[in-house]
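Progress report, Aim 2. The chain analyzed during this reporting quarter is listed below.
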Amino acid sequence: MTKRERRRDSYIRRKYGRSLRWYNRKLEEQDGRCAICGKHWKDFKAGMPLAVDHDHKLAGLYIYTFRIDCMYVAWVPQFKYKVFVSFKNPKVVRKKMRMWLKRKANRGLLCYPCNTALRKLGDRPKKFLAAAIYLFSYQVGMEWRHK
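Predicted structure tokens for the chain:
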């Protein structure tokens, strides 16, 4: 692994809780294309890599940490049965739970414009549907624009 790959692997692990190997596998699954628009990553300026799309709300959930006898427990109410336990300290269980949430939040690889559009509309499908309806309402009788 080159120094550049190690740096990229470190970044992906820290930010998304995944490895460079996972990223490359996902890139291969998607045939090197954005999951939304289907554009190949090499078609962008300077061969910019695809971004990892993740659910910001899931990665930002509050983690409750409490002590039962001699062990510490981390728990997120939205996932009733997922619990991490440690006998050392609360920071360890909190870190494990945070990493688990980060891994669960990953969805796919997107190009910069599609990733930005998702973020701007707040990951809400109803807003995307409203935007699509708005665009389609102005496309009636304008077929000449798309030839």
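Residues 59 and 101 are 5 Å apart (CA to CA). The first strand starts at residue 51 and ends at 54. These observations will guide the mutagenesis work planned for the next reporting period.
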